[in-house]
Amino acid sequence: MWQGAEAVPDVAFRELRTLWFQVTGTLCNLACRHCFNSSGPRNPWLGSLDVATVVRYIGEAAARGVREFYFTGGEPFLHLDLVRMVEAALAVAPVTVLTNGTLIDDALADRLARIAGAARYSLEIRVSLDAPTAKENDAVRGRGSFAAALRAVRLLADRGLFPIVTATEILDPSPAGPLYERLRARLIESGVQRPRIKILPVLPIGRCAQGADERRLTRKDLEGFDDARLQCTETRVVAEGGIYACPILAGLPGARLSTDRLVDALSPTALYHTACYTCYETGLACKNF
Which of 15, 60, 72, 109 is the most exposed place for a label (fewest CB within 10 A)? Predict the structure, then answer.
């Protein structure tokens, strides 16, 4: 149960290593049943960002010594100006785009490879794929999503942009073996010779909120704990409505730290949400590794 505001711990901000952009808000072409921000194709509850806003915050972050940028949504490739924004960010620091992969075709893969080849910093593409078979994956992500995502992985790998395949542990353990090993074998079988895989826990928020564990952090939990392990000590997120503490909670009023300037958001973060306990317990990091 909720403990009351007086019991909510916070952590100090250390340095701005990572800035995220929730570029399409919660607009997505899929409606995955484990989505932590309930993204989907209809009635997004969080709106998109425009190019001018993103470019402004890239500049503010550069002045604060930012080390990497991430673009997410929703599905970021639904934003018609995404590649322009990625190019602007690549002039400052390494960039990662998180995608379900279903919109990546030959033309887009070629374009991404071109900008990656011309950039001073590295471009990473993370493609979501929650199981090594269409039957398992599509039960979570929707019909046809497995084939489209796997095709995107191949297209990118063929161009030297070896994507990071990201899976969430929403499915029960398979008798065929651990998810990581099964995904790795499937990718190699599909011709991806340098598979890169990140496994994430299910988050008690969004479409998985109902019936989830209601545990929240207390000050006692943080006694002797190295809070530098929490991504909110070095990460901020630009989304509609302002700047937020972390990509999991982007758009939620309780996580909003500023409505305008990035520097005003570099303040302590209240660990008020059940998802904060998941980060504490599992060591979850939304970054690549």
Answer: 15
**Residue whose C-alpha is closest to residue 89's, from 78, 101, 76:** 76
Find tokens 């909670």 and name the residue: 249
Residue 77 CB coordination number (10 Å): 24
Find, among 236, 234, 231, 228, the residue nearest to 262 by Cα.
Answer: 236
Structural domain contains residue 14? yes
pLDDT digits (tens, 9 = 90+) for 133-180: 999 999 999 999 999 999 999 999 999 999 999 999 999 888 888 999
- Please indicate, yes or no, if residue 287 is contained in any of the structural domains: no
Closest by Cα among 241, 193, 255, 279 to 44: 241
Q: Concatenated DSSP letters for 44-57?
A: -SS----HHHHHHH
Q: Tell me if the pTM is above 0.85.
A: yes
Q: Please check whether residue 288 lies inside any domain of the structure.
A: no
Give the strand pairing for 10-11 and 269-270: antiparallel
**Count of beta carbons in the 10 Å neighbourhood of residue 2:** 10
Comparing CA positions, the residue from 10, 11, 8 lying closest to residue 233 is: 11
| Number of domains the chain contains | 1
CA distances from 161 to 126, 193, 195, 207 (A): 10, 12, 11, 31
Task: Give the CATH number for residue 87.
Answer: 3.20.20.70
143, β-bridge pairs: none
CA–CA gap between residue 255 and residue 21 (Å, rounded): 15
